[in-house]
Amino acid sequence: MKRALYQEPRFMAIPRWSPSFDKPMIPFAKPRLAILETERLKLEPLAEADAADLFPLMDDPEVMAYWDVPEIDDPDLLSEIVRAQVAEMADGGAIYWSIRTMAAQAFVGCCDLSDIDRRHKRAEVGFMLGRGSWGQGYADEAMQAVLAFAATAGLRRLTARTHLGNRRSEMLLQKLGFQEEGLLRGHVLRDGERRDCRLFGLLL
Ligand SMILES: CC(C)(COP(=O)(O)OP(=O)(O)OC[C@H]1O[C@@H](n2cnc3c(N)ncnc32)[C@H](O)[C@@H]1OP(=O)(O)O)[C@@H](O)C(=O)NCCC(=O)NCCS
Fold this sequence. Notes:
By secondary structure, the protein is an alpha+beta fold. It has four helices and eight strands. It has helices at residues 51-58, 75-91, 138-152, 167-175; strands spanning 36-37, 41-45, 95-101, 107-117, 122-129, 157-163, 179-190, 193-203. Helix 1 (51-58) packs across helix 2 (75-91). Residues 63, 66, 127-129, 134-140, 162, 166, 168-169, 172 line the site of coenzyme A.
């Protein structure tokens, strides 16, 4: 059994129900930016300085083969993307984590909860490891901690989307308990072509 440690999120007072549709009830507070620990891994909220560690992954065509955008070969562009992700976290729209080994503090990848919808208590998950870190159960271990965190933070539904052919990703999602919910035809426009995606969902 893997161990997932994190501090309890601090909840704000739940606002009183209002029938007004332009002021929808916010059912839970912005999820806290938590550090998650597992047996072998430490997940920390992404920082701007992590762009340097992320670059070799996002510059690798094999890692990026099933991503919505092709590999990124400009470190300045990646720094800009990471800066935007850090800002998105401050707004409560997403949490991106760096993943490092507990023992050597070696960077192995990143994962996230994005499109956090606090009204409907749902979010999308994402994950990426450097090629040298595949096949060791790291993504499984990291995502188990993310799922446990998501449940504690009040989320009740998680989704994931894979490009057709991303077997490793599909196997991981199925291991985590996600169910395939459908095919999103032509969902992504990449390299001038429309790609189909599979939608996966998990109720917490
Ligand atoms: C998707 C991705 C994260 C999956 O990585 P992964 O290492 O295959 O996934 P897991 O962590 O579940 O590891 C499973 C493998 O580790 C092995 N393993 C070794 N030790 C293990 C352990 N202690 N626990 C669990 N599995 C272990 C499993 O047997 C399995 O090996 P196999 O693939 O040879 O059958 C990775 O392929 C990736 O980064 N891809 C590129 C980015 C991407 O497409 N992201 C997803 C977008 S939707």
